[in-house]
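Lab channel / #folding
Pinned by the channel admin:
"Please post every new chain as: sequence first, then the structure tokens as a reply. Keep commentary short and put observations after the output so the thread stays searchable."

First post following the new format, from NK:
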Amino acid sequence: MLVVQRPLLDHHLVLLAAAWAVPAGVTLGGALRAYLARWQAAALAAFLVLVAAGLGQQWRRLDPAGLEQPAEVGAAVDRLETLVPRGSVVASDLQIVPYLAGDRQPPQLVDVSYVRVASGDLPRDAILRDSAGAAAFVVGRELGGDQALLAALRGRYRVRVRVGTITIFARPR
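Reply from TO:
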């Protein structure tokens, strides 16, 4: 995952920390017990944890580029702001766009992730039902390949704007 996932975001690292905690702890504990006295091992472990935490925090502060959004996200936010009033309900599978535009999302669609869509936990009819009152629907990553959903959205919204790989469906103001 560390090699393939780009960008590697903070929430990915949280998941990896839990996965690596047990093997790292067993390895470090065994190595320290074999080579150091008990108090030396505890002092060294505490020191290494503090150094790692400090380096991690410094890395995050000095390299915020990994947290920046692609240019098309900013362009989609700008375009969405011209299509619907601020504070409108906007459904999306790219939740950062309505968030940055100052809009609200239908509660049932706050997490439109690949896992929910692919597993069937969030079927197309539920997406359409839960987004029925939305002033706009922003389609990006997860739903862009669902032709039946896109056809339904074209029937529901008269305005359709394409910003890179993102499509914004909206009702006229």
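NK: The first helix runs from residue 10 to 35.
TO: also worth noting, The beta strands are 90-92, 136-139, 159-163, 166-170.
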